[in-house]
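WARN retry 2 of 3 for item q-0093 after timeout on previous attempt; input resubmitted unchanged.
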Amino acid sequence: MACLFISYAQAQQTAYSKEVQEKIKQVEQSLFNSKPADKPDAPRQNWKLDERMNYYGVYGLSIAVIKDYKIEWAKAYGWADIAEKRPVTIETLFQAASLSKSLNAVGVLKLVQNKKLALDADINTYLSSWKFPYDEKSKDKKINVANLLSHSAGLTVHGFPGYEVGDNLPTIPQILDGKKPANTSAVRSQFEPGLKTQYSGGGTTIAQLMVMDITKVPYAQYMWNNVLKPMGMLNSTYAQPPVNKKPNQLATGYRANKNEIKGKYHIYPEQAAAGLWTNPTDLAHYIIETQLSLAGKSNKVLSQEMTRLRLTPYFDKSAALGVFITQNGSVKTFGHGGANEGFRCQYYGSLEGGNGVVVMVNSDNGEILQELINSVALVYGW
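OK item q-0093 returned
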């Protein structure tokens, strides 16, 4: 495997300049863990990418690096499917898991921009096929659209396990009410909205239904026409299952013990929360469009004002609308992580300067993600 890994990786980088190839080589040889707070002076140990993929049992990995508002390089490593000996390419699609929420927020804010909904209005104003059942836990406070996108609605159901290929799939109202064949509990108030941030994929699923009720079209169709296609994410889809993609385009998911996910992947009717199939190159287009829109240089989907609103923490210092804002030194970034059955991923984009990185793997073990992102940050002086 190691020999094939190296030769295939080398074949992919020949299109880049010598300067970029040197940076790629440095990134591949400089993975490291962040130093623990109690040992800030501990010597840093660098690892090679192929060594860490073998160490963590990661079959396939794909990465894109953004510099100065452009994709500087994108590269893939290892296997999309080990049994089929099908290698990962930069076009291979992975499940984006909770990164789906970032693009969902763009789609919701497109409706706000078009004056189809208001961020501060009661969600039941826009829900027609199902209504949120308020109870005493909400303390007579109404949940608004911004609460859903910023995880400040006080709702239950953190995430979703998905469904095996061939399972009966629930409708969105069934999921929200926790009725069979749904495999998660009902999405209900755990405490009053606006009290604190508590991550809720359940809240994002309410937002999905809201989009469908307002537009009267399937969620995947709305997101393709209004978000993915305009941003240039032409290989991506919210279709669940991804019937509009060829099977050899899709990465197979694997457990941390390297066992294949039954049916190769799970199906997520909770599309807004976990259903996007994409790759780092397409996600880089989204990051760049966000950065350019924030700078007032592009408005393919959202205006500068709406993008600024999306990247402004709504309740605390971190949770904005579909993204989390972090600051390391003088660098402020927007980003999100993702974890579906058999897939892990992470992206960051800088709010200034047009830099960013996306990493996706087809494994339940996501330890390598931050190590590789650390290496990119080190090599690029971020």
